[in-house]
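So, could you explain this one?
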Amino acid sequence: MPTVGECSSTLSAVTRALCSALAAALVLSVGDATGSTASTQQLTIPMDDGVSIAATLHLPDGAPPTAGWPALVFLHGLAGSRESMNALASAYGFVGKGYAVLSFDARGHGQSGGLVGIDGPREVADTRAVFQWLAGRPDVDGNNIGAWGISYGGGAVLNSLVAGVPWGAVVTVQTWTNLFSALMPQGLVKSGLVAGLAGSIPETKRDPSLATVQAAAFAGNSAVVRPWAAERSSLSKLGAVTTPVFMAQGRRDFLFGIDQAAQAFRRLKGPKALYVGLHGHAPSTFPAADTGVLMARAGEWFDCWLKSPFCDAPPASVYVASENFAGEVARRGATPPPVRPSVVAFPGVSTFARRGKAVRSAPLRRAVEVYGSPTLKTSVAASGGWSRLVAVLTARTPQGREIVVSAGGVPTKRGVQKLTIKLASQATFIPRGSRLTLTLGSSSLAQSPSNLLYLDLPMPPAARVRIGNAVLTLPGLRTPVTR
């Protein structure tokens, strides 16, 4: 398995990292914090079904305050372990700085027992039990326990929050709030990403239900996938949450897009922050250039809501890091930044079979900092069992650099139909003078053999499709942050 440092933002990294970075198997190359002191205990916490959860507890040296130490729980990504969280919490100054810090191996991970169920009810029960165990300690302030979770761990934080675990404040990084729209947007599964996620979990550690759900997703059976995903999604319940929530999402994360946090941000009723930065699943990485700023903001968030009796933080804050990050990320306001549309036409008529494709290009007249989901509208005539259409948008800059801007797909049915494809929600700066290319086919491999976002799943030999004119709408920041 490659380390995070081996990933890059190039096109080839999209596929090299699918089975690792897209699974958020976090491998951090960070050192120990300096100037901090804490005692460390290795523990096992029993669950009500007999499974033992392995944990590490760091306690500050000295006598605890009268109410006990405020506490933080760190939750790792899929295929990760508490060791990466211990390194992160230490490197960014959470250990030994007045917090009891607990990390634990999620069920089916590291030294914990049990099987991986992808943050389902069983994992929520585990998270609740860990919280209760920590809150029950006499040296911990049970009224001021926060949670920091990345990817899989972020899903666990939000799912436990809406299930009633009384976190005092939370921070989530590059995670989901609606698992169905993340993995099967518009009813077409991101098959390469799902295969990568599944492949990151040893077969002996997978709950048997996962195979059934994956097979249904690959077959396009939304009726099976949707309730499974809903049970693992927090979005529909976040409107009742008043807990302070800080959500950090990646500018370019092809697994969990900006929309996963932006939709939640709009619904949350309590203090909230949205940080859109350089971190993320492939083609991004974690850590990234601005991770120090992100973690400093997270520390301020926890200090404000867990340590201070009077926190004067604004009720809502939005931060957007520039693509050419230079050391600081300014607050952009209390709401997500406004966008204006740019419309690009890709005229033509193309007919092809499963291995074929339509490739169309057009110049970009002005610089655009895409923010959100580009939308493609076209008409198709499908026959012979043709069942899907995948679109990949790329840009070639005046300097000759190729950028995969976004991609998306939808199922198709027999006959003539008008289609609207929402591409992945992300933020990408495209310089003036760039040339856009739209590739349409049965998979993302039509754009490049190394682009495995949507696999070339089977279709009948007789499958054919005719594609007419295509019109692309790019949502661009009214006030760009990248220069």
Summary: The chain is about 20% helix and 30% strand.
